[in-house]
Write a structure and sequence with these properties.
- The complex is a heterodimer.
- Chain A is about 30% helix and about 20% strand.
- Chain A contains 19 helices and 20 strands.
- Chain A has helices at about 5-20, 50-55, 55-60, 115-125, 140-145, 175-180, 190-195, 205, 250-260, 275-280, 310-315, 320-325, 355-365, 390-400, 415-425, 440-450, 450-455, 465-475, 480-500, and strands spanning about 30-35, 65, 75, 80-85, 90-95, 155-160, 165-170, 215-220, 225-230, 240-245, 265, 285-290, 290-300, 330-335, 375-380, 405-410, 430-435, 500-515, 515-520, 535.
- In chain A, helix 11 packs antiparallel against helix 13, helix 16 (about 440-450) runs antiparallel to helix 18 (about 465-475) and helix 18 packs antiparallel against helix 19.
- Residues about 1-25 of chain A have low confidence and may be disordered.
- By secondary structure, chain B is an all-alpha fold.
- Helix content of chain B is about 75%, strand content about 0%.
- In chain B, helix 5 runs antiparallel to helix 6, helix 9 (about 190-230) packs across helix 11 and helix 10 (about 230-240) packs across helix 11 (about 245-280).
- Chain B is globular and about 85 Å long.
- Classes of the chains: A alpha+beta, B mainly alpha.
- At the A-B interface, helix 1, helix 5, strand 8, strand 10 and helix 9 of A face helix 3, helix 5, helix 7, helix 9 and helix 12 of B.
């Protein structure tokens, strides 16, 4: 290369100078979060996905009570205190005074948050004849409905400006945890009425006004969401001035942006990238036990899975440790109960079925299948937080069962189809899982193993066991947590003995965060909170 | 001429029916269910499911749904997204400028490099330069966009730090969307640093998206040039003693360009479809990204409307090109 002119050699440098990223030029106090997708909207009552909650209810709204960040403990939020009647049917909340709502170009609040806002937010979902119930075509209050709230809450009463009373139709101890969920976010009644007067009521559902730590600034579809710190936030102004969600669907691109400093926190890393991330001196990989369970359910309405011995035998024939290693690559822990260990009432005294193919064969013989049998195993067609690779897992299980003479045919469907068919009970053995959305054990037991859930289809084992059902119903109606915990512990004993599932794993979640971010803490329910986060100056 | 225009325009009608039918049938045929997608593992009460199916009109027989859909389309209504509840046309119009901007620069890159490379290869036939151009363009043509894009990011953004990883502009700039074209908007706002940021964000996606058209154009130019260079009029021009550059650029290239331009026109459709992958990797907020998400969530109105709009644009471009041919070349008009 003798004809390499100086200009030619300098060209890459010039290009670099021209387009060099102004890395340090980001406005001080701006935290950029590489999120995994676009929110469906910013109204927490309408939607069900974590992506939308992360963009709406988490930064901009509050609930009466909330989960302490990082735990499932319930702490005061818009309600300063609460009392629960001895029969668990009446919940009275004392509301916080001096809580301000956000403002925008079309709305300047004239009053603080009070009981009217609680009644408005709730009745809007509950009352079909409420003037704001049906504002947008096709809009539904999914979570409210799917949680069966219509059958739980009878009415909400305003006692005075700062006291509200929820009167329930039946005793319901998990109700307090329900009130900490995203769908129970509190909206401003004054805002909706103002927008109605202006002739654009829909705008109130599109441009969010809440009481949360961040105010909405702008949304560029599929690109960025901008928030600014809310100076008058009742919980203290966030330390960062601006929060930006940079929507980056591809996990590899998210990681690249984290590396180059284009964002400081990223959502949902690829398991394969974790080892490299952990070696990067610029990145801290935070981790937290997931509030989840991956399992295999036996449809007990079908033969031979109606026989407990068969279910136990199939439990014993699986080498869970090997599966954990291969499928979760060490990012999970073996599950022995239907609830994860971070949830209160977890019964640690329970012994899991040992990996014992010989004993499994013996049990199968006792059940009248000495030569084994054939079965169809449905495996997950998608990656889920509780199971990174359903197919690989199914193949390993298939090999394990082969050893005790059980021939396994692997089957799967498109994800929505999979759920639809399983709800109809078409499967005999199915791989499934669950991520808890509130920190109450009821949130696992009732939707996954309760008798009602057989009808709804959430109980994939279609297992309805009277003693178990009595315990979990009683637990839901018992006010004191310590008493409830005892009941759930007993229920777990029955569950293990009856073996309607093979409990497989609780996965671990990861949030890679750049080192300059201080005070960021992972949440227990997979949300991403930034109101306590701060940015240290770059060295 | 009028008869020709009418004849060509009449062909648009069956094409339109074909496209709507295909988009409708395909998205309804693939398994999945938009209502089921509204709830996660929690599932949905069967009664509520029925109610929602009814509300969305999805409980009607497919031919009835299709008829209803066509009726609405003819009235100019493309429906509302099942997930965001926003009008499909509004969402499309918000995102389309980003796609156009990217396609334009990808084409700019492809033509800007492909044309000279093709000419060079033709002139230096059977030399190292020719083999290099053809080899590189064959590699470019067979490169999976997804992999190529990631490679570009890892090398230029992560390793060298020359270009940003993804997005349209650095998050520090909040440029009001006046036209939707980021370069024009930043110019209008008079913010030079924002303009520079927007331009730097265009580099990698344009290269990724423009690589295949670049390869096609380079190869097409080479073969067209080779053919033309053998023509008598080129020899005559040379014999007249015209300068070499004049023979190449004026006599040869102008004639070689006709098939090349046809190919460039065909690449427009390819650019719009290739944009789907490029947009996903580079978090480019365009219609490709939007359509992928629409398919994943089985958002029927978004998929049907999006495909229809893109098809309409491609059909219109083709119609205009056909009409222009007719103007330029009377043989086509009367043929």
């Amino acid at each position: 290369m003798s004809h390499d002119s100086p200009a030619r050699r300098l060209a890459p440098l010039a290009l670099a100078a021209l387009f060099a990223l102004p890395l340090g030029a980001l406005a001080k106090g701006t935290l950029v979060y590489c999120s995994e997708g676009s929110p469906e909207g910013f109204q927490p009552q309408f939607f069900t996905t974590g992506t939308t909650f992360d963009a709406a209810s988490v930064p901009m709204y509050n609930r009466l009570v909330e989960f302490e960040i990082g735990t499932t403990n319930i702490v005061p939020a818009l309600a300063e205190s609460w009392t629960i009647s001895p029969d668990s049917k009446t919940y009275t909340f004392k509301l916080r005074k001096g809580v301000k709502f956000h403002s925008n170009a079309n709305f300047k609040p004239t009053r603080d948050f009070n009981a009217d806002d609680v009644l408005f937010s709730w009745n809007r979902m509950a009352d079909d004849n409420h003037p704001f119930h049906k504002l947008t075509a096709g809009q539904t209050f999914s979570y409210y409905e799917d949680m069966g709230m219509k059958n739980i809450v009878d009415k909400v009463v305003k006692v005075d400006d700062y006291t509200v009373r929820f009167e329930l139709k039946r005793p319901e101890a998990p109700f307090l945890a329900d009130m900490a969920m995203d769908f129970a976010s509190i909206l401003s009644q004054e805002y909706f009425e103002t927008m109605l007067k202006k002739g654009t009521p829909n705008a109130a559902d599109v441009y969010p006004i809440g009481t949360g730590p961040f105010e909405f600034v702008a949304y560029q579809k599929d690109a960025t969401i901008r928030y600014k710190a809310f100076d008058k936030y009742w919980g203290g102004r966030p330390k960062i001035d601006n929060l930006v969600y940079s929507i980056t669907r591809d996990a590899t691109a998210r990681y690249a942006k984290l590396k180059t400093g284009e964002c400081q926190v990223m959502a949902f890393p690829k398991p394969a990238d974790l080892a490299e991330m952990q070696k990067d001196p610029q990145i801290e990989v935070q981790q937290k036990e997931g509030l989840n369970i991956g399992y295999i359910a036996f449809n007990v309405e079908k033969k031979p899975f109606d026989d407990k011995r068969v279910r136990q035998a199939l439990n014993m024939a699986i080498d869970k440790a090997a599966i954990l290693k291969a499928v979760y690559q060490g990012n999970g822990q073996v599950a022995k109960n239907p609830i994860p260990p971070i949830l209160w009432s977890y019964n640690n005294a329970i012994k899991d079925y040992p990996y014992d193919p010989a004993k499994a064969k013996e049990l199968l013989s006792q059940a009248g299948h000495p030569g084994g049998f054939e079965l169809e195993l449905w495996y997950l067609p998608v990656t889920r937080p509780y199971n990174p690779d359903g197919k690989r897992m199914a193949e390993m299980i298939q090999a394990d069962w082969e050893k005790i003479g059980v021939k396994t045919k692997l089957i799967t469907y498109e994800w929505a189809e999979y759920r639809k068919r399983s709800k109809g009970g078409e499967h005999s053995v199915i791989m499934f899982g669950w991520s808890g959305d509130n920190g109450d054990p009821d949130n696992f037991f009732v939707p996954l193993l309760g008798c009602e859930a057989v009808k709804g289809g959430g109980n994939a084992a279609r297992w309805c066991n009277k003693p178990f059902e009595d315990l979990i119903i009683k637990a839901a109606q018992t006010p004191k947590q310590a008493d409830r915990a005892k009941l759930y512990e007993q229920a777990q004993v029955i569950f293990k003995e009856e073996a309607p599932w093979i409990t497989l794993a609780h996965s671990i979640r990861f949030d890679p965060v750049r080192k300059e971010v201080k005070g960021y803490k992972m949440d227990a329910t997979a949300h991403h909170y930034f109101n306590k986060a701060d940015l240290a100056p770059l060295p | 001429m009028l008869a020709f225009i009418l004849r060509r325009a009449a062909l648009v009608i069956p094409t339109f029916i074909g496209v709507t039918l295909l988009a409708f049938a395909l998205i309804h045929l693939i398994p999945g269910d938009p209502v089921e997608n509204l709830s996660g593992e929690r599932g949905m009460d069967p009664a509520r499911r029925e109610r929602l199916l009814h509300e969305f009109g999805l409980d009607r027989p497919l031919p009835v749904q299709y008829g209803g859909y066509i009726g609405e389309v003819l009235r100019g209504d493309l429906g509302t997204s099942l997930t965001t509840h926003e009008r499909v046309l509004d969402e499309f119009l918000t995102l389309f400028p980003a796609t156009i901007e990217l396609a334009f620069f990808a084409m700019f890159f492809a033509v800007g490099l492909g044309l000279p490379a093709g000419i060079l290869a033709a002139l230096k036939r059977n030399t190292v330069a020719d083999y290099a151009v053809m080899g590189v363009s064959l590699t470019g043509y067979s490169m999976p966009i997804f992999w190529w894009a990631l490679l570009l990011i890892l090398f230029f953004s992560v390793q060298l730090g020359w270009t940003p990883v993804s997005g349209r502009i650095s998050v520090e700039y909040d440029v009001p969307a006046a036209t939707g074209f980021m370069l024009i908007d930043t110019l209008k706002a008079g913010d030079w640093r924002a303009l520079r940021s927007a331009a730097s964000h265009l580099i990698l996606p344009s290269i990724a998206l423009g690589t295949i058209p670049l390869a096609v154009i380079a190869r097409m130019t080479r073969s067209a040039m080779l053919e033309v260079l053998r023509e008598d009029y080129v020899r005559t021009a040379r014999a007249k003693g015209l300068p070499r550059w004049r023979v190449i650029l004026v006599h040869a290239l102008r004639n070689a360009l006709i098939p090349v331009i046809t190919v460039i026109g065909l690449q427009v459709g390819l650019l719009l479809s290739g944009a789907i992958l490029t947009e996903t990797i580079f978090s480019w907020p365009g219609v490709g990204n939007w359509l992928v998400h629409g398919v994943q969530s089985r958002d029927y109105p978004v998929v049907q409307g999006g495909i229809l709009l893109i098809a309409t644009i491609v059909i219109s471009v083709n119609l205009i090109v056909d009409l222009l041919y007719g103007v330029v070349n009377p043989r086509i008009r009367h043929g």
